[in-house]
Design a protein that fits this description.
Strand order of the largest sheet: 1-2
Number of strands: 2
Strand content: under 5%
Oligomer: single chain
Number of helices: 8
């Protein structure tokens, strides 16, 4: 019963041990990252870049260089797929275009939008870079493997495009608001205002979640859905820690502002 419902809106899992293995591994890594965030063991970037210091000396990268390192390999993975798999049909072309647009936007924000006050440790940058690169590559490859396979009975392609557009615009808009909180040469964090910041402290994460479900709907592969669900858990954990950080730093932080889901969490 469960499987019949599942296969009504996703393609059957491809006969690929690599894709099947990466589906499970990437999901478990994201769940582990969620649990780590909840427990206070953070990936060291943004406002958490220097927490949980270990006894060993860590290599710190400048934020701009570090963030470009995170996103650029995944961007090139998406771009190169048009040369590796040149004729794949509309669904695959839209899927990899969405992946490319997402990581291009990230690089654009790094170069022209974000303002930085900390850094990122190499110890955190390497696994994040690998995760983004492998997810982009596997997303496109698993879509390639659906060539010639009958479409799922329930078509989520067009709702997926809508979700993706809403998600990527909302994410960019709230990143832009955050960038305007600081004046020139200011380093201190402030309580953000505007957009959905009056409801949740991480609306940019909320729209990123929406965007990844848009990609999953466009793709309709098991890998895309498992990655969207895993990313949801990770961002729930990260937003929970972010709200906790704001509560500890600002006495006037409004208690009614949730972490990422308005009125709920």
């Amino acid at each position: 019963m469960v499987m019949s419902v599942l296969f009504s809106f996703i393609f059957p899992p491809p006969p690929s041990l690599v894709v099947s293995g990466l589906t499970v591994i990437s999901f478990m890594i994201l769940i582990n990252a969620f649990l780590s965030e909840i427990r206070g063991k953070h990936l060291n970037y943004s406002k958490f870049w220097n927490v949980n210091p270990s006894g060993k000396k860590q290599i710190k990268l400048p934020s701009k260089a570090g963030m470009l390192l995170l996103y650029t390999p995944a961007l090139f993975s998406g771009l190169s797929s048009f040369f590796v798999f040149p004729h794949q049909g509309v669904r695959c072309d839209v899927l990899r275009s969405a992946v490319i647009l997402h990581y291009f936007k990230r690089d654009f924000e790094v170069l022209f939008i974000h303002k930085y006050s900390g850094g990122i440790t190499l110890e955190s940058a390497i696994p994040i870079t690998l995760s983004y690169f492998l997810s982009a590559t596997t997303m496109v490859y698993s879509q390639h493997l659906t060539n010639g396979v009958p479409e799922p009975p329930i078509n989520l392609f067009y709702p997926g495009i809508v979700l993706f557009v809403v998600g990527i615009i909302g994410n960019f808009y709230h990143h832009y608001i955050l960038s305007k909180l600081r004046g020139k040469d200011e380093k201190e964090y402030k309580i953000p205002k505007g957009g959905l910041f009056g409801l949740v402290i991480c609306p940019h994460y909320l729209f990123e979640i929406i965007m990844f479900y848009g990609i999953a709907f466009i793709s309709q592969t098991l890998y895309a859905f498992s990655f969207a669900i895993g990313t949801t858990f990770y961002l729930l954990g990260r937003s929970y820690s972010t709200r906790k950080w704001y509560l500890s730093k600002f006495e006037d932080f409004p208690k009614n502002v949730k972490a990422v889901i308005p009125f709920v969490f």
